[in-house]
Amino acid sequence: MSRLLLLLHTRLALRTTAIILMIVTLLGVVFLALAVYLRAESVQREQQSRIQELLTTVERTAQIGCFLGDRHLAQEVTDGLLSNNIVSAVSIDASDGTTLASGRADPEGEPATSVVREIFSPFEPETSVCRITVAPDQDFIDKLVSQASTFIGGALLLQLVGIGLCVVLVVVRFVTRPITGLSHRLSELEAETGQQLQAPRGNRDDEIGQLVISVNAMIDNLVQSLGEERRLRLEREVEERRYRAIFDNVEAGIFELDSAGFVRSANPAFRRLFDMATGTDLERHPVAFAALVGDGDGATHAFAVDDEAGGYERQWEVALDSGERQRWISLILSPLETGRLQGVAHDVTERKRAADAAEKMAMTDPLTGLGNRRGFDHRLAVMARHHRLYPERCHALITLDFDHFKQINDTYGHQVGDRALCHVGGILAGLMRQRDYVARLGGDEFVVLLEGCDQRSDVEVVLERFLDRLRKPFEVEGDIEIVIGVSIGIAMVGLDTEDAEQAVRFSDIAMYAAKRAGRNTWRFYEPVTQS
């Protein structure tokens, strides 16, 4: 059974034949049942019609016998009807209900539906003289039906079998055999050489011929694809050799990360940047990239590849401590393929130092080494942003201006004046905390930002110490000593104003108030009251 099922599954001709035979059988059963039914109805109608003809034949004799009440004549009519093989029983009943004659051809048979005919008087057509009841012989009728059905069924069966075999032969000859031949030739075809199929002689213009044309077109596309693939493979080999040469000799570090954030491939430049051993087999002993760049505790999840989130490029700089000096590495990570990242690393230490030096120079006063106006503006913006985030904290802005600094320049020269400026700047820098900021805005004007000073008394302590050190004479060439005086104005951000820029103006106002008060002292900003 399993062998037959396998053949049906693998043989188109056998499967087609089986399907056609099943269809023919099903149609044969339906048509045979319909033919038998129609033939049975036809035989029944024919026998009924024949009985009616028999009754018509004996009707005249029956009229006379019934009119005269002649039982002998009525019995002869009955016997005459029973002599026909389609009649099973006959009964002639007078109009008063008495039976004039009766008889049965087969006492054991069961009569079918009887046929009744009224017999009228030969002289008075409207007067019924008797009734003839004839019962057909159903067994005989069934025998006729059976014979007719057998003949029709046999003829129909032979016709259906012949049609089925012809259809099977046509399918095998014109469909399955050409397809089988094409299948064998296709299995032996060397498509990569451009060899093509030939359509069967009788199928060049039909669907099988179109199938051959489509297969040949596919072979042409395959040959072109193979040629293109060979060309691309050669180009790829050339590109791989070129890439390998660049990979091994370029100064930039090139590396690949797997989905877990481990380094799986790295060129010599990358190994030098991160002090990795040259012979390390990264495929067998991968290194966590996070550990190389010093990202926290070296957890790898920070560099794991999330394919569902989609690939994107990341760029940042990391600082590496190599013992003698700090080095800065610029890193770029970009998606390479599913579960892989490609990275490039550059040593940007010199560029970073140059940028830091340039930035520091741009924000530093070249004479005193303190901040300049640009640096002060930047630091003031930072303090303003900090105050907006934490408005409960106060900050002090102090403006300092030398007293009679022009006399020092005129008397001792600008060189001594510059030394005096450096002296005052050094004192201020020595008194400030790390989070505070000191800047020279130009000439003899200094400014100090004290962060986190909530009380004016805290500012006064710093200024007392500053003036105490400033009172000591400043020695210049020879035995010359100079005493420097400074007028100081203070404005409190958070107490006097919430605006840092306005605090700068308020500290200037307070500084001029200190000058009016006799110089070499300080004054806090006091709002002017109108009387």
Automatic annotation (TrEMBL):
Q: Which CDD domains match?
A: GGDEF (cd01949), HAMP (cd06225)
One GO MF term, please?
A: diguanylate cyclase activity
Quote the InterPro entries the UniProt record gives.
DGC-Regulatory_Protein (IPR052163), GGDEF_dom (IPR000160), HAMP_dom (IPR003660), Nucleotide_cyclase (IPR029787), PAS (IPR000014), PAS-like_dom_sf (IPR035965), Rev_trsase/Diguanyl_cyclase (IPR043128)
Please provide an example of a Pfam family that matches this protein in its UniProt record.
GGDEF
Tell me if Nucleotidyltransferase is a UniProt keyword of this record: yes
HAMP domain ranges (all copies):
173-227
PAS domain residues are: 239-274
Indicate the transmembrane segments per the record: 12-38, 151-175
Enzyme class at the top of the EC tree:
transferase
The GGDEF domain extends over 393-527
Protein EC: 2.7.7.65
**Which keywords belong to this entry?**
Membrane, Nucleotidyltransferase, Transferase, Transmembrane, Transmembrane helix
NCBIfam families assigned to the protein according to its UniProt record, in alphabetical order:
GGDEF (TIGR00254), sensory_box (TIGR00229)
Report the protein name in the record: Sensor domain-containing diguanylate cyclase
Organism classification? Bacteria, Pseudomonadati, Pseudomonadota, Gammaproteobacteria, Oceanospirillales
